[in-house]
Each structure stands twice: as C-alpha cells, then as structure tokens.
Amino acid sequence: MxxxxxxxxxxxxxxxxxxxxxxxxxxxxxxxxxxxxEGHRGAxxxxxxxxxxxxxxxxxxxxxxxxxxxxxTKDGKVVVTHDDYLSxxxxxTPDGKEIPKSDAKKYAVYQMDYSLLKQFDLGTKxxxxxxxxxxxxxxxxxxxxxxxxxxxxxxxKKQMFYNIETKCSAKGDGIVHPGPEEFVKLLMDVIEKxxxxxxxxxxxxxxxxxxxxxxxxxxxxxxxxINNKKTVEENLADLGFNPFILSPLYKLVNExxxxxxxxxxxxxxxxxxxxxxxxxxxxxxxxxxxxSDYPNLLxx
Length: 300
What we know:
alpha/beta, nine-stranded mixed β-sheet, two-stranded antiparallel sheet, 10 helices, 11 strands, 15% strand, globular
C-alpha cells in the first residue's frame, strides 16, 4: 500500500513539474526573425483575406510571420477578420447572395454568434481591389482553428511567428467589440492555451489594448500601429512605454524614424508595402521587416 502511495505521489509531482515547465516555456522569449516577412491578412493580394487557405498559401511561400486581424463574436469567440461589419465588397450571405450596400452596417461581427457568422461566404466574391486574388469559397475562422491548422500545416518547417491585431477603438466599445480588458483576455486565453505565446506579437492602433498587455502580460511582444505624423518620441509618450515594434504606414518611414527606434531597441516594420520598388526602398532604410498583401514579393 505504501509503495502504491509513493508511486502515485511521484507521478503527481512529475505531472506538476511538467505543467510548471510548460507554463514557464510560454514565458520564454525566443529569437525574432532577423527580417520579418509578413503576409498581410495571410496573403490578401493572392488569396481570400484572413482565411485558413490564405495563411496556408503564405506558409507555402516561406514567410516568417502570419499577419492577421481579430474580432470578438456575440458568444465571446475570437475570430480572424478585419472589418467591424461583414463587407458587401467581398462577402456573400449564407445562401450565396450579395449583401446590398445599404446593408453595409447590418452584420456586425460582435452582434452575431459564431455559428451564424461562419455560414457567410468569404472568397467566392473576389475583392475588386485585388485582381490577382484567387476565387476560393471559404469562411471567417476561429483564431483557435486557424492556429491549429497553421501549426499542423507547417510541421517540419521552422516555427513561424504570428502578428495578431486587435481591431478595436474607444468609440466602438460595447458596440462592435468588447472593452480592451475583455478583448485582451479573450485573445490571450486562446494564445496561451495553444502554447504559441513566445511566437506572438500583438499589434494595434488602439493603445489601450497594448497598455493592458504591457501591464498584465508583460512577457508578450507588442507592436504599436501608427498612421500619423507625430514624432517617434510623441508616439511613444502617447503609448506610455516602448513597444517591441513600431509599425507605421510605409509612407511615413524615413531614415530618422528608423534610427531613433533602433537607438531605443525598437524594431520598425512598415505596412502595407505592395510593390517591389517600395519593398527595396524600405529595405534601404534598414527596416526590420515588411507587411505586404503580396508576400510572394518578399520572398523572391
């Protein structure tokens, strides 16, 4: 009897130790790519945006980082999609019909349960802004399902990074998304459960979500998205801390910005750089990565 108790105790201690190691591993920083090649919304210029098939295509191209957007559904699910409302520009109803422009704000992601949201067609109607985009019927995925698929699909390859944006703003709280505290918790619950925390960067234009992360999840890398003409110092003062990455609209990037960020050990990764000429110009400014709708241009 004593022997059985002893064995059971050892087993429990071992299990506890395993859990501790697993938890500590999620806190460990891993080396970020020397140059981060990021497929915007997967590979928006080539495949339906923010879809599992789009992410697979970006993986096939050999990118280092999958870039995507997240929203929260009515039933608290974290989904991968950009717009607050389902867009008439490239979404179809569950029965394959066009969404009238008059209904542009009819289908709020935050006001729908995921079981309904998943039924809408994403990919059959090609986004007119991206004529090279392949026509493939798809849907808005759960972040958890997308991660599972990406991890399985890329097995045997170097572990990729995930650049995940929180799509929110103060004016949308309680209307098209939850408040920043709840948004961050729901997002991090998925990321931590999937065990990919060391390979994640959370980006946002909404400084509030980044501030919550900095306070409650200081081990998570953050990226401050900017589209303004403030100085580096002004943007950092506005945020209240130095993020891992400053991510500006590429037209705002200049030599001085990159120099100032590098002096502060902050990486610069501009968006959305869609021509070979623009990519070359950004690289000449010594940026640390590029987000592009055409990841094929980043790896060729």
